[in-house]
Design brief:
With 488 residues, the protein is α+β, with helices and mostly antiparallel strands. The chain has two domains: 104 residues, Nucleic acid-binding proteins (OB fold (Dihydrolipoamide Acetyltransferase, E2P), Beta Barrel), CATH 2.40.50.140; 306 residues, Bira Bifunctional Protein, Domain 2 (BirA Bifunctional Protein, domain 2), CATH 3.30.930. Helices cover 33% and strands 23% of the residues. Helix 6 crosses helix 8. Bound molecules: 4-amino-1,4-dioxobutan-2-aminium adenosine-5'-monophosphate and magnesium ion.
Length: 488
């Protein structure tokens, strides 16, 4: 490799430079320019390389570095700097780099660069998703996203769960909600037809209708019934047309599945898992969280009194990390909701009058934010509003389901104990019109060595909403997919 090329590869991360104790030495950094100010004699360049929230200040003597070269060091450009790491005389930073040599690796037309050194709205930045990672907010969010992903694996590994990869292409609809994206390589302009005019999927790639998966659960169940305790962490896809701040068409889900486990084990695992993740963020993402905490506090200032949240971001995370979740049954929750003020005053969009009603996010948030003021686990839901695979309770009306509800989010986890009894499972599939022929392999696990087992799904972006305090799910995944949006 030529020396010229290599020079771009050597250097230190700004994160390391900012915490360095050995000063007055030569360092090299590579970064993007966030801001530049100064005068005829000296330029102060604020440089950020993504390694942490803070940038480092590069001080460049105009005469020494060259006026023409410094003109090319514009906001948005990429630079290579060799200089002395020194204690800073100025306010706002401990150390800075006094430049000896500067190279512009990639210039930027400062006037056209969309990310100016000022506050941009999140809506505007969503349209600049290819560049928004260069803002403090999105840098923080995506670093935390990495930390949470790492913590998920760390948690399960330390508990002896095995990470399994469930298929993304599937012929089954695990949740039975029918919100799947069809995958095909048939010629859409000339679809093969059967004699009765239907699309002939026997000629499609897999010889049957195939979709993107909505959940890895059914396969995780198969693997748990052999490996014991497993988890998936993969992308899932739902074609539900919910243009909300909490739904994506492509989102990531973590689905643990435990053999020899019941609903109470599942609830305990869910609480331990969520608290571990929140603690991990508090311990490892302090600088980014402090920034987002302040950001949220600034937003709160513009809100009406009744809309202001009672806790700051870090305070809220600490609260959830240190307090048990409230566990109650669906039936108990319905009683609370039926007698609640917003129900009596007809303030809910969906009024609760009967047992059996599906809970909307307004109801979930009422329970969490107004009534209990803590995370809530609802269990034992009516069987008619839940999936076919959930274990039927003895009352004949409910199933051993559990949803974990979080402040500001609503449902963050959905799960259940699974129906392990073959006769009960097949009867329920009949009632719900779920094909036993297609799911023959799922049923075989109930014929050969079936055991009680349970699991749940955590929506990774819902977790990210909670941990970062961001309010729109489109801002916690780098390139969000939602109706009419598949750019980038
Ligand atoms: O409640 P859901 O549909 O449960 C399942 O898919 C089960 N198979 C999980 C299991 O038991 N293994 O989805 C689980 C979680 C929800 O609680 C929510 O956090 C998230 O996935 N989720 C979504 N997140 C973003 N966008 C969407 N459209 C989501 N739909 C569900
Ligand atoms: Mg659910």
């Amino acid at each position: 490799m030529s020396a010229e090329k290599r020079v771009y590869q050597v250097g230190e991360k700004i994160k390391a430079l900012l915490s360095a104790t050995a000063l007055d030495r030569e360092v090299i950094l590579r970064a993007w320019v966030r801001n530049k100010r100064g005068n005829k004699h000296v330029a102060f360049i604020s440089a950020n390389d993504g390694s942490c929230l803070s940038g480092i200040q590069v001080v460049a003597d105009v005469e020494k570095i060259g006026e023409d070269l410094l003109k090319e060091v514009t906001v948005g450009s990429a630079i290579w700097v060799k200089g002395q790491l020194v204690a800073s005389a100025g306010k706002g930073q401990q150390v800075e780099v006094v430049a000896e040599e500067v190279r512009v690796l990639g210039g930027a037309d400062a006037e056209k660069y969309p990310i100016q050194p000022k506050k941009h709205s999140l809506e505007f930045l969503r349209e600049q998703a290819h560049l928004r990672v260069r803002t403090s907010t999105f840098g923080a969010v995506f670093r935390i996203r990495h930390a949470m992903s790492y913590a998920v694996h760390h948690f399960f590994n330390s508990k002896g769960f095995f990470n399994v990869h469930s298929p993304i292409l599937t012929a089954t609809d695990a949740e039975g909600a029918g919100e799947m994206f069809r995958v095909t390589n048939l010629n859409l302009k000339d679809l093969p037809r059967t004699d009765d005019g239907e699309i002939d999927y026997s000629q499609d790639f897999f010889g049957r209708p195939t979709n993107l998966t909505v959940s890895g659960q059914l396969e995780a169940e198969l693997l748990a019934l052999g490996l014991g305790e497993v988890y998936t962490f993969g992308p899932t896809f739902r074609a539900e047309n919910s243009n909300t701040s909490r739904h994506l068409a492509e989102f990531w889900m973590i689905e643990p599945e435990m053999a020899f486990a019941e609903l109470s084990d599942n609830i305990a695992l869910a609480q331990e898992f969520l608290q571990y993740l929140v603690n991990y963020a508090l311990d490892n993402c302090r600088e980014d969280l402090a920034f987002l905490d302040q950001r949220l506090a600034d937003e709160e200032k513009n809100k009406k009194k009744e809309e202001k949240s009672e806790m700051g971001l870090i305070e809220k995370l600490e609260f959830v990390a240190n307090n048990d979740f409230k566990v109650l049954t669906y039936t108990e929750a319905i009683e609370i909701l039926r007698n609640s003020k917003p129900n009596k005053k007809k303030q809910f969009n969906y009024l609760i009058d009967e047992w059996g009603a599906d809970l909307q996010s307004e109801h979930e948030r009422y329970l969490v934010e107004k009534h209990f003021k803590m995370p809530v686990v609802l269990k034992d839901y009516p069987k008619d509003i839940k999936a076919f695979y959930m274990r039927q309770n003895d009352d004949g009306k409910t199933v051993a389901a559990m949803d974990v509800l979080f402040p500001g989010i609503g449902e963050i986890i959905g799960g259940s104990q699974r129906e392990e009894r073959l006769d009960k499972l097949t009867r329920r599939m009949e009632e719900m019109d779920v094909s036993q022929e297609e799911l023959w392999w799922f049923l075989e696990t109930r014929k050969f060595g079936t055991v009680p087992h349970a699991g749940f799904g955590l929506g990774f972006e819902r977790l990210m909403l909670f941990v970062t305090g961001m309010t729109n799910i489109r801002d916690v995944i780098p390139f969000p997919r939602f109706p009419d949006h598949a750019e980038f």
